[in-house]
Amino acid sequence: xxxxxxxxxxxxxxxxxxxxxxxxxxxxxxxxxxxxxxxxxxxxxxxxxxxxxxxxxxxxxxxxxxxxxxxxxxxxxxxxxxxxxxxxxxxxxxxxxxxxxxxxxxxxxxxxxxxxxxxxxxxxxxxxx
Length: 129
Description:
This protein has six helices and five strands. It is of the alpha/beta class. A five-stranded parallel beta sheet has the order 1-5-4-2-3.
């Protein structure tokens, strides 16, 4: 086997691993559309929106009433998150990829977490405030 073939097989294995990991993450977390999340927030008291984007992104735009903890800080912010232990935490980012990882991480930490499918992009496109 040539070096090129080894590199190609390694690359294919990496891509397959990424796809399988993503599929397992998607299946392990509850997802809400922008409309479903908006209705849930209006009807239920124990629902929290958590913005996991960077500080710069948050300053540009955010969903009114949401809390902010960047994805990179989730592990070190467990004390701050304790106040939401009994609530469902719906994570959002720009398009829903980072928030999927955040929701999975929060679930591993024992929180009831979900993902806002499509993130703030879909939220804004739906005309929600």
